[in-house]
Please model this.
Amino acid sequence: MPDPHASAFERHDHAGCRHDVLAAVEREARERGLRLTPVRRRTLEILLEEHRAMGAYDVLERLAKDGFGAQPPVAYRALDFLVDHGFAHRIRRLNAFAACMHPDHSHAPVFLICTGCNAVAEAPGEQVREALDATARSLGFAVERSNIEAVGLCPTCAPE
Amino acid sequence: MPDPHASAFERHDHAGCRHDVLAAVEREARERGLRLTPVRRRTLEILLEEHRAMGAYDVLERLAKDGFGAQPPVAYRALDFLVDHGFAHRIRRLNAFAACMHPDHSHAPVFLICTGCNAVAEAPGEQVREALDATARSLGFAVERSNIEAVGLCPTCAPE
DNA sequence: TCCGTTCGTGTTATACTATTACATATCATT
DNA sequence: AATGATATGTAATAGTATAACACGAACGGA
Model:
């Protein structure tokens, strides 16, 4: 099994992580009584196959090829479902979506977007999330959800 | 002078903070050799007057009423200028813009968006930013810019 | 099993957000 | 005043997202 903690910037076994994540999502959905319908499942597969942040219309195009509806709501609804239940993430800076690589445990990840190669890594966000909660709490604000995104250069693209 | 550290969730003297921020921006622009042209200045004034996150088209509408061009690029260019130089912020979650309340010192704020009253507060982001940098660094990622946004309930809207 | 309700899908249409491209004008500098 | 860089105005279009409605499948209770 691929190292689940490997950074998305590192080389890893795509086929393996794809399979594992899908299995984890299926199990989660079953346990939580969620309906992982054909469109939803296929949408997740597409995100996993591409293994990158994809626009809703890119996803839609692929869904249409697979015989699903070709109108925007088809993609948006499936993507919203995945995001709502933690099986995918929305990256607002890119107006894009990406499969969650750790769907089995709740987490609020941080996204690192490389301006050199356009790769997007899902980094562990516990520390950042904790700091954010503390900051919010000091103002009496109760955080429900958050998005934390950074753009910069990944190790490969960074100058020496 | 209004307390510059007051949370946006607290009552405060809008007219006062408006004036102070505008003065600070004018000084900053002068010192840094930036051209705070009429559209740009008016755009900032609009954001300050409304004192909330505004869509580009809302801003555009007001600019048009004031005799400026009525096409989207007019608003987007002015807003981009303000954002690029730290005089305003872009809140991606809302596809909106808000005047920066502390334009005199560089900072990477955190945005707290209340789902109850739609208020947006600009909270100090040093701690969060530090945690984000640490997380990114551990993956060899060099952060250039980031956006950190949280949705939840402000003190006023939170249930007892 | 039948009925009603909820949920999911497909479709049409439209709303909202943002950028490209190009012409014109203004500014800073010589 | 001439030049090059910067800023503005406008037209056209690209890209992102949602509302509203019809239909049908899944679910739960009588």
About this structure: Residues 1-5 of chain B have pLDDT under 50 and may be disordered.
